[in-house]
Each structure stands twice: as structure tokens, then as C-alpha cells.
Amino acid sequence: MKDVLIQYMKRFSDLSESELKKLTVDVPVASFKKGTILLHQGDIPDECYFVLKGCVRQYGVDENGNEHTYNFFTEEQSVTIFNLHTTDKASPYSLSCLEDCTLVVGDLSTEQENYDMNPVLEMMTRKMIEEDMGAMRDDFSSFISSTPEERYQALMEKRPGLIDRVPQYQLASYLGIKPESLSRIKKRSASHLRIVD
């Protein structure tokens, strides 16, 4: 299962496969059942994750009790709540497993210690974070300037498998629309594909 992690790390390092295997020998991997809450909104995060298998949902509940889905993390994606800039360090989000998951589990309290022992790991992590942040910025920019239909089409192009892996109401929340609007968009999209075929 760690092969997924090693393949991902190759994108950010010139290390050989055997060197990367040595780096990941002591990396903790854990399995979590569908429905497991990895982090509750309001708690202080003490772990970060990397998805080897499964799907993790990031969501929050607003002051009116409405639930909002902010992201889905699937294979080869890291899951970290960046909140060190906040006063109380509490997470504004919850994280839950939408499927049975196999995750690399990182201890945030020993992060610097691990970097001191493996400087190459710190460099790789920085590159990974830069890529993640760049993608998030681009996604956010296109999200706020696009129509719901365009958001759906972009999702189908970038992450087509997600449609069949997550409940429709969560997918609609992620796209910033109502479930019935998503149903209409999906129908229009399907009929358009039939016309094109």
C-alpha cells in the first residue's frame, strides 16, 4: 500500500525508489472504517493524513446549523488543516471517512523533529504544500467566476470518479448548489452527451 505514497513522492524528489522506501519504512499507516470522524469541528488538529485508499470529506456546520462540504480527498491527496494563524488553533472543519480508508497518519507534534532527522522530507513536503496551495487557489478563482453548470463540468473533467463515490447532497454542497439543481444539471449534461454521440 505504501507504493502509492512512494509513487507520489517521486514527483517531488530525485531520490531513487530504494531511498524513498527507506524514508517510508517507519511511516505509520492506519485503516479507518467508513463513518469514522478523524477530526471534529472546534478541536485542535494534532494529526495530518495522506490518502492511500478511500475518500475523506472536509465539512463544517455554520452558526445556523447548516452543513457545508468544502472538499473531498481521495487517493494521492494530503489532508491537512492549516490553522496556525488563528488565535485558538481550533479547526473550523470536521473530517470524516466516506469510505473505508487506508491513510498515512502524521503526528503534527513531531513534524519538526522528523524534518530535522530527514531534511529531504522537509523539502518534499514544502513542494507538496506549494502544489496543493497553487491548485486550491486556482480552483477557488475558477469557482467564484463560474456558473453551477461550469463547476459541474470542471468537476467531471478533473475528478470524474467522485460523482459515484459521494452522496449527491454532499456533492451539491461542494458545488455551492441545491441537490435538485445538481439533478437538473446532470440530466442536461447526460442529454447533451447523447446528442453529441
From TrEMBL:
<dbReference type="InterPro" id="IPR018490">
    <property type="entry name" value="cNMP-bd_dom_sf"/>
</dbReference>
<keyword id="KW-0010">Activator</keyword>
<keyword id="KW-0418">Kinase</keyword>
<dbReference type="Pfam" id="PF00027">
    <property type="entry name" value="cNMP_binding"/>
</dbReference>
<protein>
    <submittedName>
        <fullName>cAMP-binding domain of CRP or a regulatory subunit of cAMP-dependent protein kinases</fullName>
    </submittedName>
</protein>
<dbReference type="InterPro" id="IPR014710">
    <property type="entry name" value="RmlC-like_jellyroll"/>
</dbReference>
<feature type="domain" description="Cyclic nucleotide-binding">
    <location>
        <begin position="11"/>
        <end position="57"/>
    </location>
</feature>
<keyword id="KW-0808">Transferase</keyword>
<dbReference type="GO" id="GO:0016301">
    <property type="term" value="F:kinase activity"/>
</dbReference>
<dbReference type="InterPro" id="IPR000595">
    <property type="entry name" value="cNMP-bd_dom"/>
</dbReference>
